[in-house]
Specification:
It contains six helices and five strands; from the N terminus they run ααββαβββααα. With 163 residues, it is of the alpha/beta class. The longest helix has 17 residues.
Length: 163
């Protein structure tokens, strides 16, 4: 915001409800983290062990490029958009799909957005999206796009997982 004030629309106002909802998914291990609280190396370590990255639209979602693509049950991204200036953006979804990552977008209505307290995430919708994403990842051994295997820079250790 141009007036020097801080916008909190990308802050999850009901984060404990979100964590509790996601923790109720069978087999899910949930780690809630504000990546701003971590060094860059710590951010990479956390994201490299993440099967499904969930967050508000922002730079943190870009870390999906560091996910362990090619490993079992990897990878998925759920990006949430508070209605407003960010809702027209498509970049992270395009990037995820080009990497072979399962991607889902959740648009959050303006009634759930407050510049003073943050955005209330629709927990039931998020849980449903994550459950479906887990099912999709279980049906396919990996989300590595087949063309990646032919890339000379692709790590050979993942080829056995894909085949």
């Amino acid at each position: 915001m141009g007036d020097g004030s801080i916008s909190t629309v990308r802050y999850i106002a009901n984060s404990m409800e979100v964590v509790n909802g996601l923790s109720g998914i069978d087999g899910a291990a949930v780690t809630a983290a504000d990546l701003a609280d971590y060094s860059f190396d710590e951010q990479l370590q956390l994201v490299q062990t993440t099967s499904i990255l969930i967050g508000m639209h922002g730079a943190g979602i870009t870390h999906s490029i560091h996910m362990a693509i090619g490993t079992p049950l990897c990878c998925g991204v759920v990006e949430m958009f508070p209605q407003g200036e960010y809702s027209v953006i498509r970049g992270h979804g395009n990037m995820a799909r080009r990497m072979g990552v399962v991607y889902e977008r959740i648009d959050i209505s303006a009634s759930m957005v407050s510049h003073g307290t943050g955005t209330r995430v629709p927990v039931d919708e998020l849980v449903g999206v994550v459950k479906e994403m887990i099912n999709r990842l279980h049906r396919a051994p990996s989300c590595v796009h087949p063309s990646a295997i032919d890339d000379p820079h692709f790590s050979a250790k993942y080829v056995d997982i894909w085949q």
